[in-house]
Amino acid sequence: MTTLDDSEPVIDKDGVRLTVEDAVATVTLTHPAKRNAQSPALWRALTEAGRSLPGSVRVVVLRGEGKSFSAGLDRQAFTPEGFDGEPSFLDLARGSDEDLDAVISEYQEAFTWWRRSDLVSIAAVQGHAIGAGFQLALACDLRVVAEDVRFAMRETSLGLVPDLTGTHPLVSLVGYARALEICATGRFVHAEEAERIGLANLSVPAEDLDAAVRDLTAALLAAPRDAVTETKALLRGVQGRSYEEQRAAERAAQARRLRDLAGIGD
To answer: What rounded mean pLDDT belongs to the chain?
Structure first.
């Protein structure tokens, strides 16, 4: 088992490569010369990667080639020309509220599927993870970071807000006050702080990043899939339930697991 790109790609286009080996899929950002800057084409490729996963996949690893995970949105988006074949962001701003909402919703799809209940996703993050790059790392369930990592939410400094699904997980991980401070100042969060405040599950030297992700992947695969899926659903639902509702959810989930283990149908 491996989480690196040594198998035949399922997808390899627009800065995204998807490979699958048994129960592990690896999604790699493949524009290191641009520090894996993001574009609408890349987001569509990420969405396609999520839709292309075989049912056998249990763990998805997200990584970026080169020295940086992702330096965020490609600034070409803010030029009058935009990207070839794409409306520029300036053109989008001139459209109706409904059209703009629909476009942003489409972009967000690249960031939503990583938390599917039947998967556990791991972001392997090194170097810069800025703006959209930070939000892509936040889209994953878990984050293993290299000691040179630099997280930053720079949208506010550009007169924008984080809109690629990053605000909810950020507040869930570090709390409202710290999330506001990180977003409003746009400052860097380095590896030691990221691990201390809960942004990162683990911080390791850069040369150990792949090995640490492999070890975590193996540990995740050691437990039965249905038990991991039920546990993930329980934990994801905590914020929307009262204490008593969570107790009831635990009982219902455990009843399903016990019946399954005993070979008794519902």
So the answer is: 94
